[in-house]
Design brief:
Order of helices and strands: HHHEEHHHHH
Oligomer: single chain
Number of helices: 8
Helix content: 55-70%
């Protein structure tokens, strides 16, 4: 989410953009770390693929690059749960399609082996997932909510110090 007019406001307040950019960048990195810590763990692929990115001055984001990140974050099928403030982003994520039936089944077979479940159970488990969906296991949104509070507090401290 970009704040329109922020650079102009900082100029009027005589605040160096670089000061705020440092705060935003540091908080973005901290959010990525929080998301990694909250990410579901199986083979570690989700956490390994969460990265902070900088698109430009005062323009940052955290990206979960694993193709199934969005499905884990929001759930699938009838079990999808999307926070209102993420509806627009989630709509884009939910259009991502990846893999084939055979690849999905293979992934579930591998998961069964790692969990000590008989491989024959993979097919009914996979069909159940396709029919019923999976519960959300959010990691990005809780990291965002936690970091948002810290970010606001850090900005407040900056402005209090700056305008004392």
């Amino acid at each position: 989410m970009a704040l329109k007019g922020l650079k102009e406001l900082l100029k009027v307040l005589d605040i160096p953009i670089s000061d705020i950019d440092k705060i935003v960048g540091a908080n973005n990195s901290q959010m990525a770390q929080k998301a990694k810590g909250l990410a579901p763990v199986d083979k570690g692929g989700i956490a390994q693929n969460i990265v902070p990115v900088q698109y430009g001055e005062l323009h940052y984001g955290v990206v979960a690059n694993a193709i199934h990140s969005g499905w884990l974050e929001f759930g699938t099928g009838g079990k999808v749960r999307i926070p209102d403030e993420l509806a627009e982003d989630a709509a884009e994520i939910r259009t991502i399609r990846g893999g084939t039936f055979a690849q999905g089944l293979k992934n579930i077979q591998e998961w069964c082996r790692r969990k000590g479940i008989e491989e024959e159970a993979a097919y009914p488990i996979f069909i159940s997932i396709l029919d019923n969906g999976i519960e959300p296991n959010p990691f990005m949104y809780p990291a965002f909510v936690a970091q948002k509070k810290e970010f606001q507090q850090e900005l407040e401290r900056y402005f209090e110090k700056r305008f004392k």
